[in-house]
Amino acid sequence: METYLILARETLEASLLVGILLTTLGRLGRKSDIPKVWLGAGLAVSACIVLGFLADRLESFLSGSAKNILDITIFFLAAIFLSYMVLWMTQNGPSMKGEIQGRATRALESGHVGILFLLSFMGVFREGLETILFLWGVSLQAGSRLPWLPFAEGVSGVLTGILIVVALFKGFSRIPLGLFFKITSVLLILMAAGMISSGIGRLISLGAVSPIVFQVWDSSRILNEHTLFGSLMADFFGYRARPSLMTILTVWGYLAFMFSWLWRMSHTRQEPSRR
Questions:
Q1: At what angle do helices 64-110 and 2-27 cross, to 10 degrees?
Q2: pTM of the full predicted structure?
Q3: H helix or E strand, kind and range, residue 52
Q4: What domain count does the chain have?
Q5: Distance CA 67, CA 58 (A)
Q6: What's the longest Cα–Cα distance across the chain?
Q7: Cα–Cα distance measured from residue 259 to residue 275, given in angstroms and rounded to the nearest whole number
Q8: CA nearest 194: which of 234, 228, 222, 221?
Q9: Residues 134-161 pLDDT 10s
Q10: Residue 237 belongs to what domain range?
Q11: Taken in order 177, 179, 183, 188, is the CA torsion positive or negative?
């Protein structure tokens, strides 16, 4: 489920960028420059596939304390970038189309058509790097499971993102993208909280951080982490049946900060429209 959600969201954002560039070129009658956009997107995807393979190899080469340090770093980096992505899209998403169209138009007017390649490459490459980092964190949380499941989720997520953008630009249906981004933003914040929980748990097990209280409660009789639903909640949201006080304070502090910040940004954006 985590793999599907991340790839659907990231594919949607990258496809939106490419789609906006393509429609801008079509509207301006510059279809001869369309291959530059596809070339940038294709090279970005290829580069991300290579980097993903290298990241997987790096994980297999490390062991012991070096692997623990890398895992903890990935957990917190993934949580930070997930949080930043959600906040950035909440603030800049509504103006993204106009900004991309403006950059493309200025590039064509100035004769610097190579900027179209860079816009496509850098936009898709950024989404790809985020995807690698997020999936790395997800794989560390999930551990061993059916090997075909992440692949199937990934393919389904990519297809979902592409189909939504195709339907949007072809006018097949009126897709409420705002609602889609709001729902996925909440789920991604919960995923980031789960990664923070896993990172704190690793630090406590290494003795680098005090748990304050080792076990605040025991909810294993209600929801055991080793059941199907319990493991899903543990992997997706960082659920712990026997959490430490440090884990609770960190995770709930993060959730309070993120949701209050989102509410503040949404409230601030609505004020000008009311006026």
A1: 10
A2: 0.79
A3: helix 34-61
A4: 1
A5: 9
A6: 67
A7: 25
A8: 234
A9: 888 877 776 555 555 666 777 888 888 8
A10: 2-274
A11: positive
Q: Which pair of tokens denotes residue 162?
A: 């592409």
Burial class (CB in 10 A: 0-12, 13-18, 19+), 50: exposed
Q: Which amino acid is at 139?
A: S
Amino acid, res. 112: H
Residue 206's SS3 state is coil
Rounded to 10 degrees, the C-alpha dihedral 241/245/248/254 comes to: -160
Q: Where are the alpha helices (DSSP H) in 111-170?
A: 114-142, 148-170
Alpha-carbon distance 181 to 266, whole Å?
13
pLDDT at 265: 79
Q: Do residues 131 and 15 make contact, with C-beta atoms less than 8 angstroms apart?
A: no
Amino acid, res. 96: M
Phi, psi of 224 (to 5 degrees): -85, 135
Structure tokens at 75: 């957990």
Q: Which of 157, 18, 145, 133 shows the shortest CA–CA distance to 71?
A: 133
Average pLDDT, whole number, for the chain?
82
